[in-house]
Design brief:
This protein has 461 residues and is of the alpha/beta class. Among the domains are: 144 residues, FAD/NAD(P)-binding domain (3-Layer(bba) Sandwich); 150 residues, FAD/NAD(P)-binding domain. The protein is built from 13 helices and 24 strands. Strands 3-2-1-7-20-19 form a 6-stranded mixed beta sheet, covered by helices on one side. Strand 5 and strand 6 form a beta hairpin. The longest helix is centred in the C-terminal third of the chain and has 27 residues. The termini are far apart. 44% of the residues are buried. The N terminus is likely disordered. Flavin-adenine dinucleotide binds next to helix 1, strand 2, strand 4, helix 7 and helix 10.
Amino acid sequence: MSHPGATASDRHKVVIIGSGFGGLNAAQKLKHTDVDIKLIARTTHHLFQPLLYQVATGIISEGEIAPPTRLILRKQENAQVLLGDVTHVDLENKTVTSELLGHDYKTPYDTLILAAGAGQSYFGNDHFAEFAPGMKSIDDALELRGRILGAFEQAERSSDPVRRAKLLTFVVVGAGPTGVEMAGQIQELADQTLKGSFRHIDPTEAHVILLDAAPAVLPPMGKKLGLKAQERLEKMGVEVQLNAMVTDVDRNGITVKDPDGTIRRIEAACKVWSAGVQASPLGRDLAAQSDTEIDRAGRVKVNPDLSIPGHPDVFVIGDMAFVDGVPGMAQGAIQGAKYVSKIIDNEAKARQHGTIPKPREPFKYFDKGSMATVSKYNAVAQVGKLEFGGFIAWLAWLGLHLIYLVGFKTKVATLMSWAVTFLSRQRGQLTITEQQAYARTRIEQLEDIAASVRETEKAAS
Ligand SMILES: Cc1cc2nc3c(=O)[nH]c(=O)nc-3n(C[C@H](O)[C@H](O)[C@H](O)COP(=O)(O)OP(=O)(O)OC[C@H]3O[C@@H](n4cnc5c(N)ncnc54)[C@H](O)[C@@H]3O)c2cc1C
């Protein structure tokens, strides 16, 4: 039993995996709880994913949406931030194994919160990733920025009209909020920011296509808002193709199957994938050791108190968890984190006073609505039964994102960047480096070379 004077080593140990909305909020909510927290994440920052598309299209810098977790928690003495890729959770021995640069570290826990989120899903076609990066990390966003701006640069040097058309065609796969935001911003980048800055090509001739296998834009937001967003995109010049199933992606474009079975090609150098998510593989790790089940997207089917079957001390929150009626959105992770921290706090207090903790009430999600920006000064929003679009929705979007960005400095810096873009046609973050544009391809080539060397050595021995 822990007591107020407990030393760090004998205090109740809470390990949190992930520094996203779920992980960070859980750590912060436990600030005044008599527990020792170790937050392990594979990046050193807390990432505000909803604004990744603005990094990719040069509106804001990566630092504005990815403050270092260590600095956010600097004054929280009961929390330690550890960099590492968690590779295994041992439910029986209550340890978490994480890897950092070839070293494995074991961290014991009394209570574990898994908030490792979700990655991009290519629905079993992982080879698409090389040609159509997703948008899940800062690396993804910077690589996409390199690919988008790089395509314009190559087009300026090309004298072949067919190649030029391919370079100036941008395909965004997935018409959810990220796809809508991305397509709108590529179009605005071409029409407003880049206009007049090339001599051989006219960037306003860029052809932006937003494509989805579903019959509507923004399906979770309902028909009315979906149509509103679609109309606005089309007015801007974005071509929206619905009921279009991507069957292949390669360096030069994508292959699409229409509902009547027609197979067609879209030649496009730059493709963006925003079509599906797959929860962290750590869910499978839990399922392999317990009665925990996972759904098709790899999400963990949790108990009403967000713990896993047979392990009341292991919680799964945010995008990693499947809870009926809770969407894979920031609010789901934030509210889950709040709820779980309250349980941990109650139980810590009960241990401290030698009393029986209050029984756990089931997790209840409060739907605060959702919104997506379509273009400068235009967004769609849904709050309860209220659905609205246009400038008011855009202002609401602006205000809410500012509130949820972590840290005063990031808020000010983002506001300044927005002023540059929204009050003029400029963007302050259009720098691309060779590493951003080519690093992933080069790394993959090196991995291929290393694999073939290993094969040759194996065959020779
Ligand atoms: C491009 C984009 C736009 C979005 N827009 C919106 C929006 O407008 N509104 C909205 O509400 N939601 C939006 N979302 C969804 C929202 O960002 C997620 O629902 C939310 O981030 C989920 O929080 P989480 O804590 O579960 O996971 P995340 O925030 O993804 O955090 C996961 C954390 O786990 C870490 N991690 C993962 N695997 C490991 C491992 N093996 N070892 C160690 N650490 C690991 C990651 O590094 C990260 O720190 C968007 C998402 C994306 C990708």
